[in-house]
Amino acid sequence: MSAIEDIKDTLKRGKTIDGYDYKAKKRYKEPAPESIDTEEFKKVVESRRSVRKFTSKPIPKEVLEDCLGMAMLAPSSCNLQPWEFHVVQTPNNKQKLVEACMNQNAAKTAAELIVVVARTQNWSKIAKLNITDWPQPTVPKHWVSFYKNGVPLTYWQGPFDALGRVKKSIANVAGLFRPIPRGPFSQADMKVWAVKSVALAAENLMLAFRSHGYDTCPMEGMDERRVRKLLKLPKDAEVVMVIGAGERAEDGVYFPRVQFDKNNFIHYA
Ligand SMILES: Cc1cc2nc3c(=O)[nH]c(=O)nc-3n(C[C@H](O)[C@H](O)[C@H](O)COP(=O)(O)O)c2cc1C
Fold first, then answer.
1. N or C: which end of the chain has fewer CB within 10 A?
2. Angle of helix 91-100 relative to helix 224-231, nearest 10 degrees?
3. CA 81/CA 99 separation, integer angstroms
4. Which atom from ligand 1 is nearest to the alpha carbon of 253?
């Protein structure tokens, strides 16, 4: 199905932007679990603190893998999962990463150091995976069409953002008459686009460690250029943060939590 045919089909069948097909006879159903212990969840969220000093206890491999698995259950824009997790383990690389993290104690004492990376140009590869790795015997037609046509149309900005500029002009005019997405229209927008989803995965990762009894410290206080060089990251990779993880030392949390009046942040409209 071409992009134009897909747009026509969308209009004819009354599909929405979220891919819901009103005409489909058979619907996928996934009930929510019956009960979740909110207090236990709250304990995980509330006890997550940035820990700057860890004990020498290692993190078991199964725990590390379980946490990385939970990180990748985070929501991502169009399920394009623009994240990468580089677990830096060899002593030489670890030493270089600690230096790149300005020798912060959280990096120096961490049992594991994970570089969380956002990729702005990985979307075409992941779009293909969305089709090939569909978990049921038949891939819905609108799903294939979206990942073949809709995704490139949305995320390809062309050389020097030329296509992005055209899309922006069209959106500016069309947007006078109806609601329309206002981006991404440039490589700078793509950076914001990717980092949004990756930051959610980073928080999942930190909460997952906490739920296993381990702690973390997110670090953006690092020399991104050195981290990129160490990991030989491609041009489109953005280092979102380095996460140090391990067992909290008795004096691992340096300060009490500082909270502010919620009215500074919550607005009802
Ligand atoms: C994106 C980001 C970058 C951060 N960078 C550092 C860092 O480089 N070093 C550090 O010690 N803490 C760093 N932090 C931790 C914050 O200082 C900490 O989250 C904040 O003070 C609130 O404390 P809490 O995490 O214990 O609730 C960072 C946090 C975030 C979200």
1. C
2. 160
3. 29
4. 26
Angstrom distances, CA of residue 164 to CA of 34, 82, 154, 161, 187: 45, 19, 9, 5, 9
**How is domain 3-12+50-253 classified at the CATH fold level?**
NADH Oxidase (3.40.109)
Q: Cα dihedral sign for 221, 223, 227, 232?
A: positive
**Cα 216 to ligand 1 centre (Å):** 10
Which pTM value belongs to this model?
A: 0.94
Domain locations in the chain? 3-12+50-253
Atom of ligand 1 nearest to the CA of 52: 11
Around ligand 1, the residues with Cβ closer than 6 Å are 49-50, 52, 104, 106, 217-221, 241, 257
- Which atom of ligand 1 is found nearest the CA of 222? 8
Helix (H, G, I), strand (E, B) or coil at 92: helix
Candidate of 109, 114, 207, 217 to mutate for ligand 1, largest count of ligand atoms within 8 Å of Cβ = 217
How many beta carbons lie within 10 A of that of residue 219, not counting itself? 21
pLDDT per residue rounded down to tens, the chain (269 residues): 555 665 565 555 555 666 666 777 778 899 999 999 999 999 999 999 999 999 999 999 999 999 999 999 999 999 999 999 999 999 999 999 999 999 999 999 999 999 999 999 999 999 999 999 999 999 999 999 999 999 999 999 999 999 999 999 999 999 999 999 999 999 999 999 999 999 999 999 999 999 999 999 999 999 999 999 999 999 999 999 999 999 999 999 999 999 999 999 999 99
Q: How far is the CA of 219 from the centre of ligand 1 (A)?
A: 6
Instruction: Print burial letters for 239-265: b (CB count within 10 Å at least 16), e (below 16).
Output: bbbbbbbbbbbeebbeeeeeeeeeeee
